[in-house]
Write a structure and sequence with these properties.
With about 575 residues, the protein is of the alpha/beta class. The protein contains twelve helices and 24 strands.
């Protein structure tokens, strides 16, 4: 065989056998103008604290990516880092309300003495709130004596709020127990403490440069829930506590206790401080501006109580009306659902008649994660894309519901990622291959483009740091060095090459199971976003193209920023799970 023949065989092994896809663009056929911002979420965890080995690198990279509408979530597994008032106020009176067939707990702290008096107790339909309870239409005559027998002289008592304890009163669907008590050595002190939360907020706000953001104070203090026993937490601020959130309804059905908690947090960060429950002023000096406030997170999973959509809507309304007293210009994001297919949540929440007067329906949000089948097989990562395509279709159904009920409401998908099997326990036993970060980044670009075609406003990659204690596979940086991985670099590529008002044009791919293509016009430049869905090199034939430049992230770029190269002709090759943006020249 001649040398020329051998060379041809080598080249053909790499090129002739490659999968091919023809991408055809109709540059004059505009589909829509983009209004979709690619962004990310940052979730509070110990690695974001000052002094951690990766703190400086993480916030440097958050600043460098220069994203708008970053979601900042104070999520519940780290009580010290996310709750500003870990213990209930210690003064008198001590009050609680429990719905039928739940528990009511009265508690005097370790230095507050014993329960010395019961000023009010009613099992029936009492009205009012702490300090102003009133008997309703019906009341068990045994209420006061039963509570006294169970509570007086004790440091704490747990009372079952049910007919077996108090006897039958009346046929009302809203039976509840309300109690007001006092402790023998109570002092008017509170546990307000922002020493852990403040450095996180300060570093985040500095890194995001005062740009619009979504703040989610998603953690309700556990003492605000009705529980038979107190929900405990470690004294170690870095310790994870998956059982911190309350598994029941709020102890204050008026929700005033909850609302004033969030009002004080907002005042702390935007008004320089607040007055606590006993009139003591707490000075912060903060005057931040928050553009969006998201109300809680993934209540459909039960992380925060067994909330129905009806109960969540009541909480949303109460918090929004309360926070509007502090900042009437802030926008509000509702739902934050883990499940994007819970149609009843959308149909109920987006119906204005189910809300209190004056409550805006600015935004709704929901999340999407692909749950992978294999942790280490790169070929299996191709399976990320089919369910992601289903998610885009399901989002279209949500858009239809939105359009029919509340067309002015905008949509934010603020958690988007992949969770690998075995997370977080197998991270050392079965390390994540480098190709995974490319595949997960390619899936994000693919979903972002699909949602952009449907007019979704925000699409956020999850999350800056997701391990230890959470899910390593959702991390956008190396959790030991703070250096970005390919998921971060794909977001960087999008932010550097797409902008609002870009014109998407009709684009087809002859093998869309291998190559996704979406062309657009940006400031008179013609560009094509290409996503290789395969763990295989693919030849892409760009009809009518003669030359151009490519910015790309693939298995060869690893942790490095997007690479660039020029090409001539109409064919290019994309490495496995490559995300590329071609600019025609």
């Amino acid at each position: 065989m001649t040398l020329r023949g051998l060379l041809f065989m080598v080249l053909c092994a790499n090129i002739c056998s490659a999968i091919q896809s023809d991408v055809v663009v109709k540059w004059n056929s505009v589909v829509r103008k983009s209004k979709t911002t690619p962004t990310l979420q940052v979730v509070v965890n110990p690695l974001l604290r000052r002094g951690s080995e990766i703190h400086d690198n993480v916030f440097r990279e958050l600043k460098a990516i220069n994203a708008n509408q970053v979601r900042f979530q104070y999520w519940y597994p780290y009580p010290h880092l996310v709750v500003a008032e870990l213990e209930a106020p210690q003064g008198n009176p001590r009050c609680a309300v429990a719905t039928n067939d739940t528990w009511l707990r009265i508690y005097c702290g370790t230095t507050d003495g014993l329960i010395e008096d019961i000023q009010f107790a009613s099992f029936g339909d009492p009205t009012g709130s702490c300090g102003n309870f009133q008997m309703g239409r019906c009341n068990s005559d045994q209420s006061l004596q039963v509570v006294k027998n169970m509570c007086l002289g004790k440091q704490s008592c747990s009372i079952p709020a049910n007919i077996a304890t108090f006897g039958k009163t009346c046929n009302t669907p809203d039976l509840r127990l309300a109690v007001q008590a006092s402790c023998s050595n109570a002092r008017n002190v509170t546990s307000w403490d922002f020493s852990y939360m403040d450095p996180l907020m300060e570093d985040f706000m500095d890194a995001t440069g005062g740009r619009n953001m979504i703040l989610d104070m998603s953690t309700i203090p556990a003492w605000m829930f009705n529980t038979k026993d107190p929900i405990t937490y470690s004294s170690d601020p870095n310790a994870v506590n998956w059982g911190y959130q309350g598994p029941t309804l709020l102890r204050d059905p008026s929700m005033k206790e909850l609302v004033t908690y969030f009002q004080r947090i907002l005042s702390w960060y935007t008004k320089g401080g607040f007055y606590d429950e006993y009139g003591v002023y707490h000075h912060s000096g903060h005057n931040y501006k928050f553009s969006h406030w998201e109300v809680l997170n993934e209540v459909d999973l039960g992380f925060t109580g067994p909330f129905s959509v009806e109960y969540y809507t009541q909480i949303y309304d109460a918090i929004v009306l309360g926070l509007r007293e502090i900042d009437p210009n802030m926008q509000y994001v509702g739902l934050a659902l883990a499940g994007h297919y819970e149609w009843s949540w959308y149909t109920y929440f987006l119906n204005a008649s189910n809300h209190a007067p004056g409550v805006p329906l600015d935004w709704i949000s929901f999340h999407y994660y692909t749950f992978a089948k294999n942790r280490t097989d790169s070929q299996s990562f191709e399976d990320f894309f089919a369910p992601a395509e289903d998610f885009v279709k399901e989002t279209r159904e949500i858009i239809k519901i939105r359009d029919s009920l509340s067309p002015q409401t905008k949509i934010d998908i603020d958690e988007l990622g992949v969770v690998l099997p075995g997370d977080p326990f197998d991270v050392d036993v079965k390390p994540i291959p480098d190709s995974y970060w490319n595949a997960a980044g390619a899936m994000f670009a693919y979903v972002w483009a699909g949602l952009a075609l449907d007019g979704v406003e925000f699409v956020g990659e999850s999350q800056m740091v997701g391990f230890p204690t959470q899910w390593p596979s959702v991390s956008m940086v190396n959790w030991t060095t703070g250096i970005p991985n390919s998921r971060y670099r794909v977001l960087q590529l999008l932010l550097e090459n797409v902008q609002l008002e870009d014109e998407f044009v009709t684009t087809t791919s002859s093998d869309d199971s291998s190559i996704f293509g979406q062309a657009y016009v940006s400031e008179n430049s013609r560009k094509i976003l290409l996503v290789n869905r395969r763990f295989q090199k693919v030849q892409v034939n760009l009809e009518g193209v003669v030359r151009g430049n490519i910015a790309y992230v693939d298995v060869t770029t690893k942790e490095n920023p997007p690479a660039f190269k020029s090409f001539k002709g109409s064919s290019i090759f994309l490495e496995p799970f490559c995300v590329a943006i071609v600019t025609l020249t």
